[in-house]
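User: Could you write out the 3D structure of this protein bound to phosphoenolpyruvate? I've included everything you need below.
Assistant: Certainly. Input first, then the structure.
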Amino acid sequence: MQYAPVIRVSALPAIEVPAGDIAEADRPVEAGRFAAAATEVATRLRARAAHATGAASEVLAATAALAQDRAWLGAADKRIAAGAPAVRAVTEAVEQFVEMFTQLGGLMAERVTDLRDIRDRVVAELCGLPEPGVPLPDIPSILCAEDLAPADTAGLDPQLVVGLVTTLGGPTSHTAIIARQLGIPCVVAVSGLDAVAVGTMVLLDGTAGTVTADPDASEAAEAVAAAQRDARAARQWAGPGATADGHAVAILANVQDGAAARTARETPAEGVGLFRTELCFLNRDTEPTVDEQAKIYGEVLEAFAGHKVVVRTLDAGSDKPLKFAGHPDEANPALGVRGIRIAEGNPGLLDRQLESIAAAARQTGTAPWVMAPMIATAAEAKSFAAKARSHGLTPGVMIEVPAAALLADKILEHVEFLSIGTNDLAQYTMAADRMSADLAALTDPWQPAVLTLVAITARAGAAVGKPVGVCGEAAADPLLACVLTGLGVSSLSAASAAVNGVGAKLSQVTLQQCRDAADAVLATASAADARAAALAVLG
Ligand code: PEP
Ligand code: MG
């Protein structure tokens, strides 16, 4: 909960682009000016990357690399050589690539935001204007924007930008995920934001996903004080995860590399419930070798030596394409060859990854569990489990497809554990793109249909005594985490920043309260009613 004034991203002012061409003799100087501007922008982004850590650093480094990408730099150079002033050349070259990415389909959408971001920075540099983007406020403020480039989100200072509100983006878009990792309360897909002037006081409730402009000042202060009390309790919570009456629920962390795992180790997280390995390789053109992979995986195992670590095999495709995973050209990538389905056409990729995980386990002395993403059938689970066991690894699968939730009992005949990915489970249950701002209400994990599938899965696990965890964003919501516990899940894995809040809330309620809340939620017919029903039982 935050109560603070609004700031906005400064846009590039309208710039007069000279219509005429420049003289031939001046073109080399113009080309030099352009190269220097692009280099300056990349250098600044790299410097910010060096100051950031984990995913934030990677996103900034990736954007810096895009600023130096030969393809669009070459396209702009060509235009300058033909007489275009640098500003026009940059604008046209970027638009050419934006069009190309847009035609390639939704999964390149975030690259488009990045490219336009770089265009504006380079144009500002060429015109001697201040760099567009996020302002540095003097006092803690709430940043309102249509959307943020991942690089801008990654570079936010959580001391000064204490909240983030966007008109676009879904709850599981990368902007939201990075903000959560930085511990910045974030509400996405908010309409009516444009009417809120800079400096207006707003009350932002990141948990309930609400933003109130100009609220009653004393009520807002009271709400903030209550939230601060909760935050203090959260900071004091030291684990391990359990309800007030001692029912154990492991509280784990979601990580994407060694740096994130080391950050997670500083929280009371008892292990890693989801290591998103594909995020280590988003910028790679070629498949990393077994040795390279083993070293990267080993960093995470070392950070949690002797603890539970669940490594997910590459979940490539859709919103996370990997250049070396050979994605086919598809009209609908979210329903296409992604996750485990890639193994069908490229079994070597999965085998080499399992070999790398096994090597990391040998080298570090910590044996992880492994799980496959996007499992839809028991046969896929069986085949994955056989491969994992042949490498001496303990196999499980993610439940992200409604078909897999409905047949969780059949899948459990082949694997040792299940982990429910509520982000994709909501997307596929509700037939709503998780990246779409317009459909954010449908992809809300409080949707009773989604929670019914969680209940079916948890019951299947309990029937055979095998663990069923949740590792989607649902596990990061303290109230929902209690409901998931009541539904019978045995572990909750969330971004490091959410670990304390979830653990603290769970420690304040009894298992019976969690079960009562779960029953109440399953009796509702809307996400709003489900949340209200849980709140009534759990406070
Ligand atoms: C999920 O789908 O809930 C999940 C944890 O996987 P990802 O968000 O990486 O798709
Ligand atoms: Mg998923």
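The chain has a mean pLDDT of 91.
User: Perfect, thank you.
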